Amino acid sequence: MDYDVIVIGGGPAGCETARIIAEKGYRVLIAEEHRKIGEPMQCAGLVSPRTLKIAAMPDAIIINQIHGAFVHSPGGEVLPIRDKEAYALVIDRSEFDRNLSQRAEGAGAKIMTGVRAWVGDIFPDETSVKFKSFGGEFTARARLLIGADGANSHVARRINIPTPNEVIRMCAAEVELKCSEKDMVHIFLGREIAPGWFGWVIPVDEKRARVGIGVSGRDKHPKYYFNRMVEAHPEIFKGMNFLRSTGGVVPIGMFPRIYSERTLLVGDAACQTKPISGGGLYLGLLGAKLCAKVAAKAFSNGNLSSEFLSEYQWLWEREMADEIQTALEYRNIYLNMSDKEMDTLIRFFNRPLWQSIISRYGDIDYPSWLAGRLSFARPWAERFFMTRFKKILNYC
Length: 396
Description:
Layout: E1 3-8, H1 12-22, E2 28-32, E3 46-47, H2 49-55, E4 62-66, E5 68-72, E6 78-82, E7 88-91, H3 93-106, E8 110-113, E9 116-122, E10 127-133, E11 136-147, H4 154-158, E12 166-176, E13 184-188, E14 199-203, E15 208-216, H5 222-232, H6 234-237, E16 241-252, E17 259-260, E18 263-265, H7 281-301, H8 306-309, H9 311-335, H10 339-349, H11 352-361, H12 367-377, H13 381-386
Parallel strand pairs: 1-2, 1-11, 2-8, 5-13, 11-18
Antiparallel strand pairs: 3-7, 4-7, 5-6, 9-10, 10-11, 12-15, 12-16, 13-14, 14-15, 17-18
Helix pairs in contact: 1-3, 1-7, 2-7, 7-9, 11-12
């Protein structure tokens, strides 16, 4: 047997899973299709302090601290939310990825970059993986396969996991842009600006920002909506110059199964993403710890059957299913809102009481906490959330 574990995908979830398993003495291979870990950057790099804590990252990874947001409605309403404490951190995402990969190597995992990998045969006692690189083709065998190969996971397709309920397509860029308030992000809402998702400006410093947009569906390319967002807000995007562009997709929903015979999925490949923001670092790292825990237990028991590995599904759902399901319910409300309702929503929240609650209890990892507080603050706020926001017209 060549390896105990082959991890396809060298992103944060894959490297963290590999590190934990390798630390227990197992032979682990990470196969990454890009030539450099962490490049190209396909993430806005905005995370909660909680994410850096779970990843045990040094403060040096932090580029900027975010204390609030300007939320722009389709009709021009602006909701400012600000807090004294930093609720989110802008990080060097490439360095974040490299740090995790170096730790995995330090634990004994082997990393191959610039290789394409696909699953060969899954036998009762091993799985074969085929690799292709500039140096040629070869095959390796492993007792366990872990798919950490992103939203378009080949491993997930190989074990007959259904496609995600929804996929968000993104167009993003790092740009030169004057950011007069570098501790405030901009969020843009609206069916004409970002159907099914939102646009963003995340300051890196006073002169640079990460700008992007996501869209649901395939009506038009995300770049079309990116340009519309820029044109609709000349006061924000004036003088913008592109430094580098990127894109990507984010799966939304929950898979009914993230395991199979001798196979586990983790990170975006397991749809471990936030339905409201699309962020996957925090959930992916949580998933990595659970995935590695079940893998190590399976090795100790000499049982890599689908039935035994199903404990991973149970642990994941116990940890995050309620939160994800709640977020999906609120997302569904958002998807059914008209632009007029979004305008009214922003106007409704643009009051000291609601601004105070949002700034105090807003959490990018656990949005249900804020929803609960809003409902608790006023008895009719629950109706406000559960009826597509139409009833708030009576209060404005």
